[in-house]
Every structure is written in C-alpha cells, then in structure tokens.
Acyl-CoA thioesterase
Amino acid sequence: MSTAIPHRVSIGIDPADIDFMGHVNNASYLKWVQEAVIDHWRALAPAEAVAQHLWVALKHEITYRKPTFLNDDVIATVLLEKVQGARAFYETVIKRGEEVLAEVKSSWCCLDAETLRPARLAQGVIERFFSDNDAR
C-alpha cells in the first residue's frame, strides 16, 4: 500500500495578511496553499519534471477552524491524495502547534511548460510523492 509523503512548509505571516478584525484574512490562506503545494512539487519532483511542468489551481475548498494571528507559528502540511490524468488532488492542513486552523481540499491541473496545455505526469514522477508502506 502507498502512503502520501507529507510535506511541511513554514508559513510567514505578513502584516498585510491581517484584516480589520485583527486576524489573517481568508484570502491569505489561498496564497499559503498555493505556495505550499508548489513547494511540495519542487521538493519531491525531479528537476527535469519541475522544469517541464507548471501547475494551475482549479478548485479550493477551505474549512476554517480557528483564527490565525500575526505572530503565530504556522505550518502547512501538504499531502497529494491522488493523480488522475493531468489533475492532482491535494489536502493541506494549516496548524498552529497541534491546533488545526484550516483544512483545504484543492485540485490542480498540470500543464506542459512549453505548450501550456494539460499534461499527464509519468508514473515514475507520481511515485516520488508516495512511499510504500507494506505491512508485512
């Protein structure tokens, strides 16, 4: 059985992320998710695949659990759930310590960097995002 390899990204909170209510504006979470997913891709994919492919977001579904504040130490954990054709489905959990601040389900389209048309990833590239977790 394969298990997604978690990728953790430290989130820097900028004063511009803070809204009129004194906490992080909802739109900032989208920026964080995009940064975290792209960082995940660059960290685990081979350099050649990174150079040949781009990612565009198709859909984000965010469940906000708790407010985030300027000086919070925040980590986004990204998991690639599955790849279907040129689409990838991700789960990103944003936490402050053990507290879940937001959970995000998102789908992305892989593009050929040259043609900007949807592109399927090679199975060998996809496998780099999962570990074999055979319980023998």
